[in-house]
Amino acid sequence: MRNRLIVANWKLNGNWAFNEMMISELSAGLGGVQSHDHEIILCPPAIYLQQLNGLMGDIPLLLGGQDLSEHFFGAYTGEVSGQMLKELGCRYTLVGHSERRARHQESNELVALKAKAALACGLIPIICVGETLEERESGKMNAVIQRQIQSVMECLEDDISQVVIAYEPIWAIGTGLTAKVEQAQEVHEFIRGVLREYSELSAQKISVIYGGSVKAANAPILLEMPDIDGLLVGGASLLSSEFLAICLSSLNSK
Ligand SMILES: O=C[C@H](O)COP(=O)(O)O
């Protein structure tokens, strides 16, 4: 019932030659593989979306932004709007990644406005939530994640089923530490419970994906969990062989 999503977040990485090589290698590895309920989404730096859009041809890949402005146009130097992402071929956009929450002081309220702006532009927001190690160890994890989700749900009102949630324990991002599968499943189940407070149907429909040191080696076991509907991959998405292995393990697991 829920779509399976494998999302590559390239963060501040890529260049013209690297992008060409990645598309060529992903094309060779994924050629001919089609699945109506799997989506593989590349989120490169916004400046490269146009190049990638031109390179992708009929390869079964989609594009996403890494962030967007909560504004649609105007005097907001350096920002990229949802319409701009849409024009460059994006179907998705990340919103509220922990690196933006921490480094750019993005509040829950701002993340909610960005998610709303994304939907208004016809993009599906992938809303990132997750706790720090300190929050986990001091027992605040559930409250933190619940608040992150509630802010968005309260702002979106009727549109809540149109989003994707990405759970990323901040302590597992880029550290080589991955949440144990049982820990990840437990939080995903908790997230589904929070969604259920708004709508049972939405809770069943919204894909909740996991991120944090995902690799080819741990992807299959994560994807076996009943409430993990896909993966948000950082570092390993920059290595075509690793990323392909993750995509293929997802495509073969259902
Ligand atoms: O957006 C991706 C996440 O921040 C995970 O990054 P990572 O796979 O390098 O830990």
TrEMBL record:
Active site residues of this protein: H97, E168
This protein's record includes keyword Cytoplasm: yes
SUPFAM superfamilies: Triosephosphate isomerase (TIM) (SSF51351)
Classification via InterPro entries: Aldolase_TIM (IPR013785), TIM_sf (IPR035990), TrioseP_Isoase_bac/euk (IPR022896), Triosephosphate_isomerase (IPR000652), Triosephosphate_isomerase_AS (IPR020861)
Binding site for substrate: N9, W10, K11, G174, S213, G234, G235
EC number: 5.3.1.1
Protein name: Triosephosphate isomerase
Protein's UniProt keywords contain Zinc: no
Catalyzed reactions: D-glyceraldehyde 3-phosphate = dihydroxyacetone phosphate
Gene responsible for this protein: tpiA
Function statement: Involved in the gluconeogenesis. Catalyzes stereospecifically the conversion of dihydroxyacetone phosphate (DHAP) to D-glyceraldehyde-3-phosphate (G3P).
Gene Ontology terms describing biological process: gluconeogenesis; glyceraldehyde-3-phosphate biosynthetic process; glycerol catabolic process; glycolytic process
Source organism (scientific name): Polynucleobacter kasalickyi
GO cellular component: cytosol
Molecular functions (GO terms): triose-phosphate isomerase activity
Biochemical pathway: Carbohydrate biosynthesis; gluconeogenesis; Carbohydrate degradation; glycolysis; D-glyceraldehyde 3-phosphate from glycerone phosphate: step 1/1; Carbohydrate metabolism; erythritol degradation
